[in-house]
Each structure stands twice: as structure tokens, then as C-alpha cells.
Amino acid sequence: MQIRKVIVVGGGTAGWLSACHLAKKLQSHDAQGVEVCLIESAEIPTIGVGEGTVPAIRRSLEYLGISETEFVRECDVTFKQSIKFVDWVKNPVGANAGDYYHHVFDYPAITPFNLTPYWLLDYQEKMPFVDAVSIQGKLCDLGLAPKNMTHPEYQGAANYAYHLDAAKFAQLLTRHATAKLGVKHVLANVLEVKTDEQGNIASLVTDQGNYSADIYVDCTGFTSLLIGQTLGVTFMDKTHQLFADTALAVQVPYENAEAPIPCYTVATAKEAGWIWDIGLFARRGIGYVYSSAHTSHDRAEQVLRDYLGHSADGLSVRRIPMQVGYREKFWHKNCVAIGLSQGFVEPLEATGLLVYDATARMLAEQFPATKDAIEITAKKFNQRVQYAWDRVVDFVKLHYLLSRRDDNDFWLDNRKRESVPDSLLERLDFWQHAVPTDYDFSSRMEIFNLENYLYVLYGMQFPTEIESVRYRYPDLQEASQLLDLQRVKFARVASELIPHRELIKRIQRYGLQTI
Ligand code: FAD
Predict the structure, then answer these.
(1) Which residues contact residue 100 at a Cβ distance below 8 angstroms, ignoring those fewer than 6 apart?
(2) 8 A C-beta contact, residue 129 and residue 89
(3) DSSP 333
């Protein structure tokens, strides 16, 4: 039997991204296509956070046919070229306070000639890893944008993602999905989810009538109304590996409307977690992500307020409990979970939208044509998404594991071996003796790849010991020439770029060229 209709429940960013991907791929102008309908409550609010992205979002926006100019204008967007990790490596005392490294988005200069071993052997003391293999850390420190007005939409001089206002982004996706992609939009509260005798979802009872479809996509956020509450798919808690389970979030106005906007997320490590600081065009979004087992909520608020200083006087802070982990299955029977209902592991490295966008696209691209194909498609989907989440846990944990901070049990507990996934331990054991290479990243569902690991490992001073095999790296002159080339490239690119806030203002005023 052909699959003719899919209902997405939930209108947060995950719901609308899913609806857009499904409609883009599956709708057609004749009777052959699949109808896509999104039901959302007008009363149950979206989570309202999720302001950092990674470069993959650019490909998706372009693929979905969204204009970058419109996106910048309507979603309070700024560009993001890096995460600047402050005070992650050592205790922030004396000269160590404010110590940082960049995890930038530009691909490092490691092919065809890999500079990494040469940096490890001869340049470690002279320059940060990021500056040896990329110019982007310096562009960030200079406050420059990753592109200028001559770059068409979605192209730039350096790789980039965005900071965005989550609520405005969901509104833009709503307009795009309904006006351009043909998604049917229903405002209704789902009151009951009915199942049939095989355990499939049969229909949704709402305050605006009943709705049914062949496949349902659960985008109801942490509520997980369909896959969790109705179908009973187990939630696999991961707080024994990633301890941060609560966030305090606040929106802070700029004191000076012309203040420079950092072109990166600032992630500052604190006694029981870390603070994100994101500069949007019109305001800052700031929050403290922490482990409630290692500090009290009152103390956490104090830490956040100390960070904010007077800029947050009189502002109220919102506390958000986080479910850390993922479902045992992401596709069960005729229900697929995408978004917070699927899984979530704290916002370090902005993995939320990344995984939801990737899995929504995979669902659309591998959407079964008939009901007979559901079971095997679901099996493959579950294997891949589980692999992706496990790698996300590994990569987020890496930041805590490599820290040498010992000023709080939070940091000490994070280094206990029993809290570290075996897959991560195995990689690190290996990389103590060998420089990471593409051989170590073999799956398309890695989510984080060689470049991400290199920036974090060596930004955090991971000790790969290759002195005993120095003879394998005899091309010292080539390494030195490549470093010279980076300097030349930096001077050229930096001279063509303008300050970040200035670029946003120009895009808002004149718009970028479309491709
Ligand atoms: P929600 O936004 O919660 O939406 C749920 C939807 O379901 C709503 O529309 C609601 O109305 C609807 N709904 C619920 N119940 C019903 C019902 N009975 N009937 C009808 N409709 C219903 N991600 C990133 O990529 N980058 C970040 O920097 C980042 N930071 C984060 C920081 C924090 C503290 C947290 C908690 C998350 C963060 N995330 C981040 C994740 C981000 O919030 C999510 O990626 C994103 O908002 C998707 O949420 P969602 O759409 O799954 O759920």
C-alpha cells in the first residue's frame, strides 16, 4: 500500500525543518506525491532556545530554497565562524584566567600535506594549532565577518554557520513551508493519540477534530507525546556520561547598539558547567549549562549573574531542565521522532539542530514508498541515528575529559574512566601514539569529523607522542613554506573583510547577490 500522507506534530524548529525536508522531497504537483501536514499547539510554547548552528545548516537552507538575505533580515542572524572555548584547559587563576582556543569551521590545511605532525614536533610552543592550519582563528580575533558583499548568498571567504533567534527562525520556516513548499498547517492541541491493534498510531484526537496519516513525525519536544508517552519507547539517559542537566537562559540587550558582535560563540567553562554567550544582531543570548548534582540552582544563578555583571540587572533568568540522552529507537512502527523528542545532550557544539536537520533530511531521502518498506527502513534509520548520537556523546565528552581543571568535583568526576564511553577511550588511547587521520572516521553519520577532533584535541593540548618516529616527517622545509603561505593568505583575506556588525547592516540594507 502506497504511503500518501505524513503528519508532523510540533511546530518548533525541529518540526518545521522536518516538514520542509519532507515537502521538498516528497510533494509533487500531481497525485503521486505525499501530503505533508504539520499540527502544532498555539498554547504550548516551543522551547525558545537553540541559537547556535554549525555550517551544515547553510547547505540545508540553500537546498530548501530559503534566501540568505531574507534569513539574515528576519531571524536576527549573525555569522558564526568558531566556538571560542575560554578557561576549559586549566583552572582560571592568575595568568591562566581567560585562556582560550578556537574550534573554527574552516577545514584545516592538512591535505595533501598534513601539517599536524610538524606542528606537534616543532611548532607547538610557538603558535596555537589553529593558527598553524587555518587563518580563521585570527579572523575571529580581529572581529571580521567571514564574507563580504561581493560573495553571493551562502558563499564566503571562510566557512561559517549562524547565530539565530530560534522563535523567529521557526516563523520563517513556517512561512516558507506553507507558502512555497505546500505544507498544510493546522493549529490544534493534540488531546489523545489513538493506536491500532498492531501498535501503530491510528489517529490524533485534537480540539479541532481528528487527523490521521500513514506516518507520524513526533516533534513535540521533551514531551515526546507520540514516541515516548504513547508508544512507550524507552529513553536512554546519558547523565552518567554527560552531567550537565539544567540550563539558565537570559536574553540581554546590548548596552551600545554599535558594539562589535563576536563572530563566534563564546563558551566559558565554570565551576559546574559552562556559559554560552551568543551575539545576535539585536541582543545577546546567554546561558549557564550545569550539573545539578554538582551545584545548587541558586549558586548557578549567582555564577551566571557574576558573568553578566550589570548588563542583566533587573532581567529574569529562565531555568530549563534538560533530558540528556536519546530514545532506544527513533523510528518505531509508523512513528519517527525528530527533535528534542528524539534525543538531546546539552548545547555544547550546537549538536541539536545539526542532528535534527540531518535526520530529517535522511527521513525525506529514504522515505518508504509503501507500508511494506517501513520496517526495514526504520531498522536502517535507527542504526544510523543511534550511531550519530553515540558519536555526539563522544565528542561532547571529549571537551570535559581533556580538561585539566580540578577546582570542582564536576571536572574531576568528568575524568573518571567509568564516565567515559569506551569508543572515546579507544580513540584517545590510539591518538596518544598516532596523529588522527581520515582512517579514524569512516562513517557518513560521524557528525563530527577529523577536523573537529583536531581543533579540540590540540586546542586542549592533547599529548600525541611522535618524537620517537620523527624520521617519518622529514619535509621540514615544506612545512615551513606552508606556514608562510598561511601568513600571506591571512593578510590577503583579512584585507578584504569588514567588521561583523557592519556586514550584517549592509546585508539588511542592500541584500546579497543571489546565485
Ligand atoms: P520545541 O521547540 O519544544 O517544540 C515542540 C513543539 O511541539 C511546539 O510547537 C509545541 O506547541 C508542540 N506540541 C507539544 N505538545 C503538543 C500537543 N499536545 N499538541 C500539539 N502540539 C504540541 N540546539 C542547537 O542546535 N544549538 C544550540 O545552541 C542549542 N542550544 C540549546 C540550549 C538549551 C538550554 C536547550 C534545552 C536546547 C538547545 N538546543 C540547541 C536544542 C534546540 O532547542 C532544539 O534544537 C530546537 O529548539 C528543537 O526543538 P523541538 O522543535 O524539538 O521542540
Answers:
(1) 84, 85, 86, 87
(2) no
(3) T
204 lines ligand 1 (CB under 6 A): no
* Contacting residues for 360 by C-beta, under 8 A, at least 6 apart: 14, 17, 18, 20, 21, 22, 338
The response to whether residue 220 sits with its C-beta less than 6 Å from ligand 1 reads yes
pLDDT, tens only, 94-124? 888 899 999 999 999 888 899 999 999 999 9
Q: Is cis: bond before 112, omega within 30 of 0? A: yes
Nearest CA to 38 among 333, 338, 328? 338
Which among 43, 46, 251, 330 is the best mutation to test ligand 1's pocket, defined by most ligand atoms within 8 Å of the CB?
Answer: 46
Q: What percent of the chain has pLDDT over 70?
A: 99
14 lines ligand 1 (CB under 6 A): yes
Pairing of strands 343-344, 325-327: antiparallel
* Average pLDDT of the segment spanning 286-301: 98
Question: Is the pLDDT assigned to residue 27 strictly greater than 90?
Answer: no
pLDDT in tens, 246-271: 999 999 999 898 999 999 999 999 99
The whole-number average pLDDT for the span 4-22 is 98
Q: Could you identify the residue written with the cell 546579497?
A: 512
Residues taking part in catalysis: 80
pLDDT of 96 reads: 84
- Cα 457 to chain center, whole Å? 19
**CA 412 to ligand 1 centroid distance, Å:** 31
**Residue 190 phi, psi dihedral angles, 5° rounding:** -80, 120
Mean pLDDT of 325-342: 98
**Ligand 1 site-directed mutation target among 20, 39, 43, 44, most atoms within 8 Å of CB:** 44
**Exposed (0-12), middle (13-18) or buried (19+): which is 399, by Cβ within 10 Å?**
buried
Q: Tens digit of pLDDT for each residue in 393-448?
A: 999 999 999 999 999 999 999 999 999 999 999 999 999 999 999 999 988 788 89
Q: Which residue CA neighbors atom 40 of ligand 1 most closely?
A: 50
Is the distance from the beta carbon of residue 156 to the nearest atom of ligand 1 less than 6 Å? no
Which are the contacts of 451, defined by CB distance < 8 A and separation ≥ 6?
Answer: 107, 108, 110
Indicate whether residue 219 lines ligand 1 (CB < 6 A). yes
Residue 64 belongs to what H/E stretch? helix 56-64
Is there an atom of ligand 1 within 6 Å of 50 CB? yes
Q: Which atom of ligand 1 is nearest to the CA of 10?
A: 7
**pLDDT at residue 403, as a whole number:** 98
Look at the chain and count its residues.
515
